[in-house]
């Protein structure tokens, strides 16, 4: 794998694959520009070293057709504002006109191409489409970590057609932080896994149990474990078809001497709403028809104890339905404990990143990943096609 700062970009046409899949309101205004900001170090560097910059991304799911609401035009304006220089928007991403615009570029010019997913070839990892993108540039830089678990023409096939390929700073950070935690972690190493369903994260739990010293399980998925221990879970989220999986995880944890921390108590409510009666109960006493929506105070302090003196933390998935204030305390308290631990802390998944921000501790987290699905697939130990393609073709000169 080569990185952007290891290659010569001067006077070169540099194609930077970004993830500008930003949230927008109905009027087409960008409601959160953090995905654009995440790529500024890479783009700024390309400007600084004197290249001609071609930026490309997908947005939404236009399914291979030109759909106006998924145009990247508003992103060009936002990017221009953030960089403090003009960004030329091109209303297509391949073809003669785009090639002409790109060949007229001067050093320091920045062009943003239209949504790559307006062509079906993008998501099909189509070689012909990739070759057309490749014609636009001398150097290919992949910075779009959040889509690196999906083969696309602009992150996989393109590397077969561009001679010089490398990772940008965002992708570099994602890979380096992840490797620091997973390849040779400073111990004790703890994983905190929460969120809605065990079924979404079986692969993650199975991979992590082989690597961590402590595994903390909270959120909706903990109720499947609680049921597997023989307790009633009322109307809480519980996947009965996952009971054996939960039992296997518990057995493996015991065999491998991994400390498995599960909730001791929980916050239950009659419905998932703010205007409802709530109470705290032990996990062995969840009333029928009530829903467990957060970890309770005893659990918060036992998880906080488990997080003392740890050296590496990986966290994905909230401890409860934190979006509603009455059920947010567990997630926010764990966020505070992670921040206070002083450990190398890596957080992934949009929900968990948001929770940490709302808890006001994001500054104290070592790294917040920009990938949701991509982060989970890394945690599962899967290979990422876009990263593999860069590794394979990164040595080209
Ligand atoms: P995930 O995408 O699997 O990380 O799940 C995140 C979602 O899980 C958030 O929207 C939370 O509201 C939800 N969640 C966490 N704990 C619970 C719970 N105890 N009951 C229902 N939903 C939950």
Task: Give your account of this protein's structure.
The structure is a single chain. The protein has 397 residues and is an alpha/beta fold. The protein has two domains: 179 residues, Phosphoglycerate kinase, N-terminal domain (Rossmann fold, 3-Layer(aba) Sandwich); 156 residues, Rossmann fold (3-Layer(aba) Sandwich). The chain is 35% helix and 16% strand. The chain has 15 helices and 15 strands. Strands 3-4-2-1-5-6 form a six-stranded parallel β-sheet, sandwiched between helices. Helix 12 links the parallel strand 13 and strand 14. Helix 9 crosses helix 10 and helix 11 runs parallel beside helix 12. The mean pLDDT is 96. The structure holds adenosine monophosphate. Adenosine monophosphate binds next to strand 12.
| CATH second-level architecture of the largest domain | 3-Layer(aba) Sandwich
Identify the strand order in the major beta sheet: 3-4-2-1-5-6
Q: Give the helix tally.
A: 15
> Would you identify the CATH H-level superfamily of the largest domain?
Phosphoglycerate kinase, N-terminal domain
**Largest beta-sheet details:** 6 strands, parallel
**What is the CATH domain class of the largest domain?**
Alpha Beta
The helix/strand order is EHHEHEHEHHEEHEHEHHEEEEHEHEHEHH
Give the N-to-C terminal Cα separation. 13 Å
Q: Kindly state the mean pLDDT as a whole number? A: 96
* Helical content (DSSP H or I, runs of 4+): 25-40%
Unreliable stretches (pLDDT < 50, length at least 5) are none
Number of domains as seen in the coordinates: 2
Structural class: alpha/beta
Secondary structure: number of strands: 15
CA radius of gyration: 23 Å
Strand content: 15-25%
């Amino acid at each position: 794998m080569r990185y952007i700062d290891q290659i010569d970009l001067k006077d070169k046409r540099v194609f930077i694959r970004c993830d500008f899949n930003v949230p927008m309101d109905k009027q087409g205004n960008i409601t959160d520009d953090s995905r654009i900001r995440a790529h500024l170090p890479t783009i700024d560097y390309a400007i600084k070293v004197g290249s001609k910059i071609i930026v490309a991304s997908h947005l939404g799911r236009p399914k291979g057709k030109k759909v106006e609401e998924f145009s990247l035009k508003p992103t060009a304006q936002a990017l221009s504002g953030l960089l403090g220089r003009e960004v030329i928007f091109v209303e297509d991403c391949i073809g003669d006109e785009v090639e002409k615009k790109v060949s007229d570029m001067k050093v320091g010019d920045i062009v943003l191409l239209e949504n790559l997913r307006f062509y079906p070839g993008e998501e099909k990892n189509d070689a012909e489409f990739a070759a057309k993108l490749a014609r636009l540039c001398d150097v290919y830089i992949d910075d779009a970590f959040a889509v690196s678990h999906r083969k696309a023409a602009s992150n996989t096939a393109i590397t077969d057609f561009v001679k010089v390929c490398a990772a940008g700073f965002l992708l570099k950070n994602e890979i380096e932080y992840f490797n620091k935690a997973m390849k040779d972690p400073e111990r004790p190493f703890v994983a905190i896994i929460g969120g809605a369903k065990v079924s979404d994260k079986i692969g993650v739990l199975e991979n992590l149990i082989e690597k961590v010293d402590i595994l903390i399980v909270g959120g909706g998925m903990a109720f499947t474990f609680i049921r597997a221990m023989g307790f009633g879970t009322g109307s809480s989220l519980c996947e009965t078809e996952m009971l054996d999986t939960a039992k296997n995880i518990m057995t493996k944890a015991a065999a491998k001497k991994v400390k498995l921390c599960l909730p001791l108590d929980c916050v239950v409510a009659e419905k998932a709403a703010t205007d409802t009666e709530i109470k705290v109960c032990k996990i062995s006493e969840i009333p029928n028809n009530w829903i467990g929506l957060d970890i309770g105070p005893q659990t918060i302090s036992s998880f906080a104890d488990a997080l003392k003196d740890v050296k590496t933390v990986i966290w994905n998935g909230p401890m409860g339905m934190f979006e509603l204030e009455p059920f947010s305390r567990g997630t926010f308290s764990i966020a505070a404990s992670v921040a206070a631990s002083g450990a190398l802390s890596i957080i992934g998944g949009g929900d968990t990143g948001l929770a940490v921000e709302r808890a006001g501790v994001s500054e104290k987290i070592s790294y917040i990943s920009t990938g949701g699905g991509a982060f989970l697939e890394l945690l599962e130990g899967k290979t990422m096609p876009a990263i593999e393609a860069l590794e394979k073709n990164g040595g080209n000169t």
